[in-house]
Fold this sequence. Notes:
The chain is of the alpha+beta class. The protein has 2 domains: about 5-140, CATH 2.40.50.140; about 165-315 and about 375-480, BirA Bifunctional Protein, domain 2 (2-Layer Sandwich). It is about 35% helix and about 25% strand. The protein has 15 helices and 20 strands. The chain has helices spanning about 5-20, 35-40, 45-50, 95-105, 150-155, 160-165, 165-190, 230-240, 275-295, 320-325, 335-345, 355-370, 420-435, 445-455, 465-475; strands at about 55-70, 70-80, 80-90, 110-115, 115-120, 125-130, 130-135, 195, 200, 215, 220-225, 245-250, 265-270, 300, 305-310, 315, 375-380, 400-405, 410-415, 460-465. The chain has an 8-stranded mixed β-sheet, with helices on both faces. It has a 7-stranded mixed β-sheet with strand order 5-6-3-2-1-4-7. Helix 6 packs across helix 7, helix 7 packs across helix 15 (about 465-475) and helix 11 packs parallel to helix 12 (about 355-370).
Amino acid sequence: MEENEQILVRKKKLSALKAQGLPLYPNDFFPTHTTAEVRQRFGNVPEEHLQQLQDPFVLAGRIMSLRHFGKAAFFHLQDRSGQLQVYVRQGESPPEAVTLLREVLDIGDIVGVTGPLFRTRTGELTLKATTLRLLTKALRPLPEKWHGLQDIETRYRQRYLDLLVNPHVRETFRKRAQIIQLTRQFFLERDFLEVETPVMQSLAGGALARPFVTHHRALDMDLYLRIAPELYLKRLVVGGIERVFELGRNFRNEGVSTKHNPEYTMLEFYQAYATYEHLMTLTEELFFFLAQEVNNGPLLVYGEHQIDVTPPWRRLDFRAAICQYTGFSPAELEQEELVRTKARELGVLSPAAAPLGKILEELFEAVVEPHLIQPTFVIGYPVEVSPLARRNDTDPRFVDRFELYIAGREIANAFSELNDPEDQLQRFLQQLREREAGDEEAHSLDEDYVRALEYGMPPTAGEGIGIDRLVMLFTNSPSIRDVILFPHMRPERKGS
Length: 496
């Protein structure tokens, strides 16, 4: 039948129940076990021991398969923990249960069942229904191939269906929750304080990105969804909170791809009296800890690659990496016009006003990034693309910063923080000049942040880690949409 015909049939079944005066959506059935608890406790118990159990089992969940065999029927009940087979037979189960299953129930319905356990001839642990109640009628049928919803767009738009019929998707989001909980535990055990900073900000700061803008009517002022919590967290370091972190949402008004979603989750943390080199060690410890807890070891499979997160990880100089993968010599990297020309030949098109450091960064992302499969700290970024990072003492054209790459993607960004208020002000002013020249991602001038630095921020290092990309790595997910429950998409076409 067409889906709309199936919906009509199911609605007629619901109407028949209503005509009989039966409750259509009861809320008085309370399971005592989950299917996983039953399997764990009794999965290997012999049949003769199952027969000696006195108390019945009470479970609730969704019918995911239904097979009729004359006077008998089997269905698989799925709850939050898994599935268990249920058996109903005329003469052994109550007549109302047999009638309900034969005349009312469909795949997708939510039911409550009570009964003892036994094993079928094939040895499958099964619950024999002594009571069977309809708790919620599914008016729409599950996808025809319920065991594997394949259409990508449907999976993302109707995540509830995706979760229902694809066990590996439920496992992905279980792992996501576990990773976030373990990350929080990792930092709390190291004396970091978890905080919450504003999501709506009067200035879009803390990163080079295009913000979303909204308007506050009562205050008659524009506000920006934060692109990063960085400047607020460093204000807290000034205020004496020497180890601080936040797990929260960031928003960037940019394109959508397998690596980008306009709304995403970020971990940011700051540690006083530390350098970016200390954070390299801390990052290695975090990833190794997560791998042990989530994947039972340091080896992760991602696509065709096996990733080993065992410390120590490779350190790679930013300029040396560009030379290695483009054929530039170190001397050629100093010549802006030559770099700009060769970058165009390699398909990297930068605005005419873009400084050399920006061109090098775009060249790196296009040419070098795909080659960085095993965990690699890339160090020594140009100051032009690092307006909040401390200058390197040896070569002030560059900063004490690293970006972490794994499986060809940036996972983390960290640096020793700039705590010189005069230098910070000059960099903000340079960012303003770049904004006036057309760079919409250039940093705003945050005068209050400069004022905070004038009160004195201790030597500090800070880092941001993209949680979504981290989960992609740990769940072997090729797209960021696979690890975000409700990713942003274009409006659904009418009639879909």
